[in-house]
Design brief:
Chain lengths: 258, 461
């Protein structure tokens, strides 16, 4: 069987991921970012490690010391999740770490809610759905998890969602944006119908679309469409809207890459 | 009838395998013999979305596609072609639609065969429509429509029957995003295998009854999802060492189709097909560098190493500078096949096979494990416990870990993330029981509680 010498291999292939790898381990990088507060630190660390039981244990200890459970959502859980999303954005940790941390954080939020009579305030609401006719929902599930991890309240309509149901949910929930994912070219045309019906109702919110065969050219064809190449773009688009970039053209300028 | 499990390899050594030659060639369509000493381009396409508005529009679209492909093959002088029609959902949900498309396509192909003698065959890949908005309904009401779609297409002109089945995906989707090796084994290796055995027993009966070919399935819904999430070298969504474990685990699942009566050529997007070919000796379709119209991968040349049919995955039908997309891509595929066939005719196929393989061998852990020598070893690990669907999936995963570790000790460069993910996976595998009943019981309890869309009754559990 033919094989390369090391020298020949280098002329054919560059493993850029190995060449560019950062020196610091994820754990060390996280350690530098954890808040030093004696109650917040163990909660943030447990979120980074995706340890649901440890999150609850940390929250209980903080509550026992008199901390308000609803305030702990922002001051401990979201802070811990902030460490996770920052390291993901910087390419230091992988998506499964984020998903496991998000599970732990959501578990923690539920625990806080159970121990308080006050409802938590979120950054805003986003309606998520998979296009009508399409049952592939792993992309939408990633988008929803990343939005929740970034402090948004997600109305998850699920998969194969009829156009009218998306529009009705937008009217009911008044989200800051709606997201749509699709795997197939044959189903993504439902996005245009959602767009048209929203406009008919006079609703002009950003409609962030992506997934499988969806591309920027297609999404640019309808007035509200903003293309997200990756699931991780969804919370960034939401953040941009909160920061004041409501105009679709401005969002396209910021997020369209091609 | 229970499936006949593979407990030995079809080839005595990895070096016996090559492109264009399989131990058990398959005669199909109009004059084709697949795996009988030559490779065949297999063009795959999707209609423009607007064509799905009515049955008439859809049939017209497929007539244009078929004519375009056949005419280009004749214009450039290629001797053989396979057309693969992957159903849009309207065609599988309405079996008469798929049947009429098959009939229209086959009529055109017969005209070209009669006039020019071009060898050709039509594969129809039925959509796995056994699902509704909330759940997979693998054994529900839609199963009869699903089987009817196969039978109607087979009666109306399709020569080869395939599907990309979904069994096990609900658990896998949860597991792959959480580095959960047990969930991957359960979703692909156990649940997926149970479903595969059921559907392929029935599809093989339809093929026998209609005189067509039960061609095979792929773990597209799971292993290809892992590969897609894994992405390129700089993507941070999934360690490629985990993606390749999903691929190794997918092989025993895909094998179930052949154990239940499929005879090949296996479906193009089944990157596990080199392992399947090593075990079964049956011909396989593959896709790689000529499927960049559909997706990017890291095995573009390597995966040609043992292909019998060479596919572009799928391309939407529209115009390009060089003609329509199906004309451009079928021509590219056919030139690739001409090179492989020249190597076969001049007895240089092993050199070309190794060049394909070596150009990507160290590109990624996925390509390293799928290099034909390593794929063969994974096949050996599978047949070692071939009668046990859990153990053979676990064996495949462990062997894959060992292969990547050995590679990393040599010229396969792994990132620290990939190395850690591999070590974590290996530790997880080492901690799992060898007792299939215990594993199945434990997983049933765990995933029934954690995955709200998991219905055990889909698998007869």
């Amino acid at each position: 069987m033919l094989d390369f010498t090391e020298a020949s291999l280098k002329k054919v292939l560059t493993r850029y991921n190995v060449a560019l790898e950062k020196e610091m381990t994820p754990e060390a990088a996280a350690e530098e970012l954890y808040p030093k507060d004696e109650f917040v630190y163990p909660i943030a660390k447990a979120i980074f490690e995706g340890e649901e039981d440890d999150v609850v244990e940390g929250l209980q200890a903080a509550m026992d010391a008199g901390k308000d459970p609803i305030i702990l959502i922002d001051d401990a859980l979201m802070v811990g999740m902030g460490v996770v999303t920052k390291l993901y954005d910087e390419g230091i940790i992988f998506l499964p770490n984020v998903m496991m941390s998000a599970d732990a954080m959501l578990n923690g939020i539920e625990f806080c809610k159970e121990n308080s009579e006050t409802a938590p305030v979120t950054k805003g609401t986003v309606v998520c759905h998979v296009a009508e006719g399409d049952v592939h929902d792993i992309g939408k599930n990633i988008v929803a998890a990343l939005l929740r991890a970034n402090g948004y309240d997600v109305v998850d309509l699920g998969r194969d969602v009829p156009v009218d149901e998306v529009v009705a949910s937008v009217i009911k929930n008044k989200p800051l944006m709606v997201t749509g994912t699709a795997l197939m070219t044959t189903t993504m045309y439902a996005f245009k119908e959602v767009n048209d019906k929203l406009l008919e109702k006079g609703i002009k919110i950003p409609f962030a679309c992506g997934g499988g065969a969806v591309n920027q050219d297609f999404v640019s064809q309808y007035a509200l469409g903003v293309y997200g190449e990756e699931a991780a773009d969804a919370p960034k688009i939401a953040d941009a809207i909160i920061a004041g970039t409501n105009d679709i053209a401005a969002l396209r300028d910021k997020f369209h890459k091609h | 009838m229970a499936a006949k499990r593979y407990t030995s390899m079809a080839y005595a050594s990895a070096d016996e395998m090559s492109f264009g030659v399989s131990k058990y060639p398959v005669k199909a369509g109009l004059g084709l013999e697949i795996g009988a000493g030559y490779t065949i381009p297999e063009i795959n396409y999707a209609p423009r979305p607007a064509a799905g508005a009515s049955k008439e529009k859809l049939i017209k679209e497929y007539e244009k596609i078929t004519t375009d492909v056949m005419s280009r093959m004749v214009q450039v002088g290629f001797p053989a072609i396979i057309l693969e029609t992957e159903h849009v959902q309207q065609m599988s949900n309405n079996p008469s639609w798929g049947a009429e498309v098959a009939h229209a396509q086959k009529t055109i192909m017969e005209e070209y065969h009669d006039e020019y003698g071009i060898k050709c065959a039509l594969r129809h890949t039925i959509g796995d429509i056994r699902e509704n908005r909330d759940f997979l309904q693998l054994r529900g009401d839609k199963y009869s429509v699903f089987l009817e779609a196969f039978e109607e297409c087979a009666k109306s002109g399709a020569d080869m029957l395939s599907v990309e089945s979904m069994g096990g995906k609900e658990v896998f989707d949860q597991a792959i995003l959480r580095n959960d090796i047990a969930g991957m084994l359960y979703g692909i290796g156990c649940l997926g295998s149970i479903d595969m055995e059921m559907i392929w027993t029935d599809i093989a009966k339809i093929a026998k009854k209609t005189g067509t070919i039960a061609a095979g399935d792929t773990d597209c819904a799971q292993a290809n999802t892992a590969m897609f999430i894994g992405g390129g070298l700089l993507d941070k969504n999934l360690a490629h060492t985990l993606a390749v474990l999903a691929r190794a685990i997918s092989a025993p699942r895909t094998l179930c189709g052949f154990e239940a009566g499929a005879v090949g050529p296996g479906k193009d997007c089944g990157y596990e097909n080199v392992i399947i070919k090593a075990i079964t000796g049956m011909p396989m379709a593959q896709e790689g560098k000529s499927s960049t119209c559909a997706h990017s991968d890291l095995v573009g040349n390597l995966i040609m190493q043992c292909c019998d049919c060479w596919s572009n995955e799928s391309v939407e039908y529209h115009g390009e500078f060089g003609g329509t997309t199906v004309q451009c891509w079928s021509e590219s595929l056919a030139y690739d096949c001409a090179l492989m066939n020249t190597a076969l005719e001049t007895k240089n196929e092993k050199v070309l096979r190794d060049l394909f393989m070596l150009s990507d061998r160290y590109r990624d852990p996925q390509s390293y494990a799928l290099a034909y020598d390593n794929a063969y070893k994974i096949g050996q690990a599978i047949v070692k416990d071939g009668d046990n669907i859990y153990l053979r999936a676990k064996n495949a995963a462990i062997e894959c870990c060992n292969i990547i570790s050995e590679g990393a000790a040599g010229k396969l460069a792994l990132s620290r993330f990939e190395t850690k993910a591999l070590a974590d996976a290996k530790a997880s595998l080492d901690s799992l029981t060898d007792d299939m009943d215990k594993f199945m019981d434990d997983c049933l309890t765990k995933y029934k509680s954690e995955v709200k869309v998991f219905l055990p009754e889909n698998y007869g559990l």
